[in-house]
Amino acid sequence: MRLEKCWFCSSTVYPGHGIQFVRNDAKIFRFCRSKCHKNFKMKRNPRKVKWTKAYRRLHGKDMTQDATFEFERKRNRPERYDRNLTENTLKAIKVIDKVRSRRGEKHIQNRLKVRVAKDRKEAIKELDQQIHMVRALGATVKDTSAATTSTKVSVKVQQESNENRMEE
Prior knowledge:
Layout: E1 4-5, E2 12-13, E3 19-22, E4 28-31, H1 34-41, H2 53-58, H3 83-129, H4 131-134, H5 137-140, H6 144-148
Antiparallel strand pairs: 1-2, 3-4
């Protein structure tokens, strides 16, 4: 069973799924769904469409340089079946998957660090520009005697008598 890649979005195309387009020069284009096929017919560039893998790699949102991607390449050379080789390969696939997931998490954390630092700089800049809205009115007054004097105000609270209440 051969799993192909969609020409437009680079997602996996399973056997019996998707659309296959063959150009006059015998070049085969496989698409995972009609959305990709229609975008191809409209001559859209996958590097400019935000939801494609090509866009995400080009703009640094997905990892591009990693040695684990080398294992995913398509190889057309047939190999003789060897039980030990197959067993070692299946063990290696699990290890490679763990390594790839760790590196992917690290890549995301590095992207978030940059974003947090950028947000913090923007917040400081905005605070510097709008500091007059944050400061209290008394803090801007130069006369300290007016700000420090305090006056006591007494408030009388009236008690309602039971006669004036409405009956429930």
